[in-house]
Amino acid sequence: YFFTEKRMNQLKKIQGKEQTQLDHTAFLIKNELIDDHKYGTVGAVAIDKNGNIAAGTSTGGMTNKKYGRIGDSPIIGAGTYANNLTCGISSTGSGEYFIRTVAAHEVSNLIQYKKVSPSEALHEVLFNQIGKLGGEGGMILLDKNGDVYWDFNSSGMFRGYKKSNGDTKIEMFEKTN
Ligand code: ASP
């Protein structure tokens, strides 16, 4: 029931190597092959009119992961986190690094205690912490004012938002905020 040829080929390619990889896919954009684009994770963050923030992340994990592996997505504070005092966050990427840096909670703490902006906090964790350890990924963030932020150190990340006033944005590659 869950079989798809693309995913089976990705698994076969990496089986036998002591490796895991993110669920990548290939795109041809303006004749350039983009083959390390992230694909598969679904994360969401929302805020209600009372200021309650919620975050959730759904993932298939890493291709060729060992049975029993638990990634960062279901670990509150690592891949997923929400705090009404700061923001909600959902992450995608190589989960081991998000667990090691307690990434989503770290971003929230930087905002709460160091008073840095959400953009600076995302950059610090994704590039200076996760990136320096060799990890790859991205995060979406919705702050307590309802403002949306995102960042990634991978070549792209499917992302978008819809606000109650109708404002909508969808992006894949280049960063515009
Ligand atoms: N973060 C997930 C994991 O490590 C992978 C993903 O982004 O889908 O399990």
Task: Please tell me about this protein's structure.
Helix content is 24%, strand content 31%. It has helices spanning 5-14, 95-100, 103-113, 118-133; strands spanning 24-29, 32-38, 42-47, 53-58, 80-82, 87-93, 137-143, 148-152, 159-162, 168-171. The protein has a single domain, classed as Glutamine Phosphoribosylpyrophosphate, subunit 1, domain 1 (4-Layer Sandwich). Strands 5-6-7-8 form a four-stranded antiparallel sheet. A two-stranded antiparallel sheet has the order 1-2. The chain starts with a helix and ends in a 6-residue tail after the last strand. A hairpin with a 5-residue loop joins β3 and β4. The protein is of the alpha+beta class and 177 residues long. The site of aspartic acid (ASP) has 13 residues, from β6. Aspartic acid is lined by residues 40-41, 59, 61-62, 71-73, 79, 92-95.
Layout of secondary structure:
Layout (H helix, E strand, L loop, with lengths): L4 H10 L9 E6 L2 E7 L3 E6 L5 E6 L21 E3 L4 E7 L1 H6 L2 H11 L4 H16 L3 E7 L4 E5 L6 E4 L5 E4 L6
The chain binds aspartic acid.
Briefly summarize what is shown.
With 177 residues, this protein is of the alpha+beta class. It has four helices and ten strands; from the N terminus they run αββββββαααββββ.
